[in-house]
Specification:
Layout (H helix, E strand, L loop, with lengths): L9 E2 L2 E2 L16 E4 L5 E4 L1 H8 L5 E3 L6 H4 L13 E4 L3 H13 L4 E4 L15 E4 L6 E4 L4 E4 L5 H9 L3 E2 L10 H6 L7 H4 L6 E7 L5 E5 L4 H7 L8 E8 L1 E2 L3 E10 L3 H14 L4 E9 L5 E9 L6 H10 L5 E8 H4 L12 E9 L4 H8 L7 E7 L21 E9 L5 H15 L18 H5 L3 H11 L17
Parallel strand pairs: 6-8, 7-8
Antiparallel strand pairs: 1-2, 3-4, 5-6, 9-10, 10-14, 11-15, 12-13, 12-14, 16-18, 16-19, 17-18, 17-21, 20-22, 21-22
The structure holds flavin-adenine dinucleotide.
C-alpha cells in the first residue's frame, strides 16, 4: 500500500496552529456529559479526555473552550447542536484515535467534512464530532493527472489547485461544499454530464473503519469497501484522503443565465429536455422556478458549456428564440467564476430546508405539478442536471444506483426568521407531495428521508450494502447519514 498521509494542517496554504487540550485548565473542568449510541446518557471522565488528547496532533475542543461556539457550527443553522467533544483532527492517525475513543465510550459519532449537509448529519447533540475541517490540503500530480485531496477540503480547494494546471474533475457548484460528503454520496456538478459523478472519478481513498483501522481502498485493495464508498455515503467509515482522476479543462467556459416569464414554463421544460437528450455533454443546463425581485414568477435556465466557448452562442440560440426572455445574460467566462457564482457566506446565517428527488423526464403530470407551484422569495425549485456520463456507468458498478435521471429536482427554502420555519417547511412538504410521485428516489446527499425508504434509493445494491455495513460497521457507529443498517440489525 502506498503511504500518503496528510499530516499538515494547512488552511489555504497557511499554517494553522492548533491549540490542544492537555493537562490544561480545560481538562480540570471535570467530567463531560455525553450521549451513547443508544441515546442513553453517559459521562466521560476528565482523565480519559486527557488520555485521549495525548499524542493527538489536532485539537480537542470542549464546551468550555472559547473556540467551541464557532467549531460546533455547520452550514445550515437549522441544526444548532452541541457535541460533547469536538475532535478536530490533523491527520489520519487522529481520526483513528477519535474512532477508537468513540468505541471505548460507546459514543454517538458525527463526521464533519465541509459541514454542508442539509439535514445536519455532520453534527449531533452530546456525541463526538470528528471534525476534518483543518485537513484541506490538495496535491496535484500533473503528470499522472491525479489529485490527492484531504477530507476537509472544499470544492474551491480542488478547483483552484487543479485549475492552475488546466485540469479539473467533477465537483459541486458551491465553492465551500466539502468534497468528502459530496464524493461519498455521489457528486453532481457542471462537469458531471461530461465526466461522470465525483465518485466516478475516485481512484482510491483511505478510510478509517469502525474498528479504528486505516485502510487504503481502490479497485485492487479492499475493492468491496471501495465499491461501497462510491455512493454509499459516510456509512462505512471516515475517509481521510481521496485520490481523483483529473481531466483537461480550459479555464475559459461559456456561462448563461436566461430567465423567462413563468407563462413559458411548458416550452422551456420541453426545450431543456430535448437539449439534455441531444445536446453535447459539454453543455450542462440547470433549471429553476424562482421569484424575481418584484415577486414575479420566472423559469430560468442556468448553463455552463465546458467545451470551446466559441460554440456557446449557437448552442444557446434555441433558448433565445423560444420566447422573449425576461433577462438574458450569457457569454465567455472562467470556470472558476462559474464555480463561485452561487456562493453565499460560508456558514450560512439563513435557515435552509429542502425536499428533493431524481427525475427522469418531464411527464405531463410533473409538468402540471410544476405549473401549480408558486415560487416566493423564500421557496423555489432548482433542477440540477443529472444526465450524460453519469449514466454510462452501470448502476451496480458502484454503490451509486440512481443513474438514469435527467435532473435532481429540489424544492428549497431559505429564510432568516426562525418564526417562519414551520410555515415554510409545511409549504415545501406540500409542494413535494405533488412532485414526489414523479421521482425515482432521492439523492442521498440531499435527503432527510425516512430511513425506511433508504433501501429503495439504493435499488439492487442495497442488499450488498447492508452486508458490507455488517462487515465494516456492525454496530452502526456511522449512522448520521443516509443510513444503511447492517444486515440482521
Ligand atoms: C449549498 C449547497 C450546495 C450543494 N451543491 C451540490 C452540488 O452541486 N452537487 C452535489 O452533488 N451536491 C451538492 N450539495 C449536497 C452536498 O453534496 C452534500 O451536502 C454533502 O454531504 C456535503 O458534503 P460536506 O462534506 O460538506 O458535508 P458534511 O455536512 O460535512 O457531511 C455530510 C455527510 O457526509 C459525511 N461525511 C463527511 N465527511 C466525511 C468523511 N471524510 N468520511 C466519512 N463521512 C463523511 C457526514 O458524516 C455526513 O453524513 C450541496 C449542498 C449544499 C448545502
Amino acid at each position: 500500500m502506498r503511504r500518503r498521509e496528510f499530516c499538515s494542517v494547512t488552511l489555504l496554504g497557511g499554517a494553522l496552529a492548533l491549540p490542544r487540550l492537555g493537562s490544561s485548565a480545560e481538562a480540570a473542568t471535570g467530567d463531560i456529559a455525553a450521549i451513547r449510541l443508544s441515546g442513553a446518557a453517559t459521562t466521560i471522565g476528565s482523565k480519559e479526555l486527557v488520555e485521549f488528547t495525548r499524542g493527538f496532533r489536532g485539537a480537542v475542543i470542549l464546551p468550555a473552550s472559547g473556540e467551541y461556539e464557532q467549531a460546533r457550527r455547520v452550514w445550515n443553522p437549522m441544526h444548532d447542536r452541541r457535541p460533547a467533544v469536538i475532535a478536530r483532527c490533523a491527520d489520519a492517525n487522529d481520526v483513528s484515535r477519535a474512532v477508537k475513543f468513540a468505541r471505548q465510550h460507546d459514543l454517538l459519532v458525527a463526521v464533519r467534512g465541509g459541514g454542508h449537509s442539509f439535514p445536519g448529519y455532520s453534527t449531533c447533540d452530546g456525541g463526538l464530532m470528528i471534525d476534518l475541517s483543518a485537513m484541506r490540503e490538495v496535491r496535484v500530480d500533473a503528470a499522472r493527472r491525479t489529485a490527492l485531496v484531504a477530507p476537509g477540503a472544499w470544492v474551491s480547494d480542488v478547483d483552484t489547485a487543479t485549475g492552475k494546471l488546466g485540469l479539473a474533475t467533477t465537483m459541486g457548484q458551491i465553492s465551500d461544499t466539502g468534497v468528502a460528503g459530496l464524493t461519498l454520496g455521489g457528486g453532481y456538478g457542471w462537469l458531471s454530464r461530461r465526466l461522470g459523478l465525483a465518485c466516478d472519478n475516485l481512484l482510491s481513498a483511505d478510510v478509517v473503519t469502525a474498528d479504528g483501522q486505516l485502510r487504503h481502498v481502490s479497485a485492487s485493495e479492499h475493492p468491496d469497501l471501495f465499491w461501497a464508498i462510491r455512493g454509499g455515503g459516510g456509512n462505512f467509515g471516515v475517509a481521510t484522503s481521496f485520490e481523483y482522476r483529473l481531466h483537461e479543462q480550459s479555464p475559459r467556459v461559456y456561462a448563461a443565465y436566461i430567465a423567462y416569464p413563468f407563462a413559458h414554463l411548458r416550452e422551456i421544460l420541453e426545450l431543456f429536455q430535448e437539449t439534455t437528450a441531444r445536446g453535447p455533454r459539454e453543455l450542462s443546463l440547470d433549471l429553476s422556478i424562482e421569484a424575481a425581485d418584484d415577486g414575479a414568477p420566472l423559469v430560468a435556465v442556468y448553463g455552463c458549456h465546458s467545451g470551446d466557448p466559441g460554440q456557446g452562442p449557437a448552442l444557446l440560440a434555441p433558448f433565445e428564440r423560444i420566447a422573449k426572455p425576461y433577462q438574458s445574460v450569457h457569454g465567455p467566462d472562467t470556470y472558476e467564476r462559474v464555480q463561485h457564482q452561487s456562493d453565499g457566506p460560508h456558514l450560512s446565517k439563513s435557515f435552509h430546508y429542502l425536499k428533493a428527488g431524481l427525475v427522469a423526464e418531464f411527464t405531463p403530470g410533473l409538468v402540471e405539478a410544476l405549473r401549480a407551484f408558486a415560487p416566493s422569495r423564500e421557496v423555489f425549485v432548482y433542477m440540477q442536471n443529472a444526465s450524460g456520463a453519469v449514466s454510462d456507468v452501470s448502476p451496480t458498478a458502484t454503490a451509486y444506483w440512481n443513474r438514469k435521471a435527467m435532473v435532481n429536482l429540489m424544492v428549497m427554502g431559505t429564510w432568516r426568521n426562525a418564526a417562519d420555519t414551520e410555515r415554510i417547511r409545511a409549504a415545501i412538504r406540500a409542494t413535494w407531495e405533488k412532485i414526489e410521485p414523479f421521482s425515482l428516489g432521492f439523492y442521498s446527499n440531499l435527503s432527510d428521508a425516512d430511513p425506511s425508504r433508504t433501501g429503495r434509493n439504493f435499488g439492487d445494491n442495497y442488499a450488498r450494502l447492508t452486508d458490507l455495513k455488517r462487515k465494516y460497521d456492525p454496530g452502526n457507529r456511522f449512522r448520521l447519514n443516509s443510513n444503511i443498517p447492517p444486515r440482521g440489525a
